[in-house]
Design goal:
Length: 209
């Protein structure tokens, strides 16, 4: 997705320009992602932008590609990760909601806000929603659920999380972790084993009281 550019001096770098665009998108929306404001943000000349991107549209396309790979890719990869039970498989997906390395919630909110202004981005978001739900449905079916129930459980799992993001809901880690076993039971119909929860808590550096 990213170009390998050797010169990262007075022109900046591909990653630098993209990072500035990402920060501007999150802070102020897509209308702020313009070449002149970004050049001022980076303290670089406007013309240096064109060493790395053909135009603003290419920059925006690259932002969307990054969002697609990070957030849609993250959910799909976690839904396909090895698990001994459907409860553990759901805990793998829940890793996305805890770790920004797997799923970037502020980026998700920013892109969904952008979709309110652009039919093209709205179509991207709708495709992403379907791909994510399909991946979760496949996960349930892998553990023996019929297609209909798998689809409903996948939608319930996904739409609740998107609701959290859209509402910009905030929970401290301890409260979120306390609620997770019940969420797993509701979404999957199975109560997670303590060893499954222990592995989940451990990889997020959480120790229950």
């Amino acid at each position: 997705m990213e170009h390998a550019i050797a010169d990262t001096g007075w022109r900046g770098s591909h990653e630098g320009w993209l990072g500035a665009a990402y920060e501007s998108l999150l802070e102020s929306g897509v209308d702020s992602v313009k070449i002149l404001p970004l050049s001022k943000r980076l303290n670089l000349s406007r013309t240096s932008f064109y060493w790395f991107f053909k135009d603003r549209e290419e920059l925006l396309d690259t932002l969307i590609a990054r969002w697609r790979d990070k957030n849609t890719g993250g959910i799909i990869r976690q839904s396909e990760a090895y698990a001994e039970s459907v409860a553990e498989a759901m805990l793998n997906v829940f890793d996305c909601w805890i770790s920004k390395d797997l799923f970037d919630s502020p980026f998700e909110f920013a892109v969904r806000s952008w979709a309110l202004q652009s039919t093209d981005i709205l179509a991207e978001v709708q495709r992403a929603d379907q791909a994510r739900i399909d991946a979760l449905c496949r996960m349930f079916m892998r553990f023996g659920y019929d297609e209909g129930p798998a689809d409903v459980r996948a939608r319930t799992t996904y739409l609740v999380q998107i609701g959290y993001i859209s509402m910009q809901s905030r929970e401290d880690l301890a409260l979120r972790m306390k609620r997770i076993p019940e969420y797993i039971a509701i979404y999957t119909g199975q109560t997670p084993q303590q060893r499954e929860l222990d592995r989940f808590f451990s990889r997020h550096g959480y120790r229950p009281d």
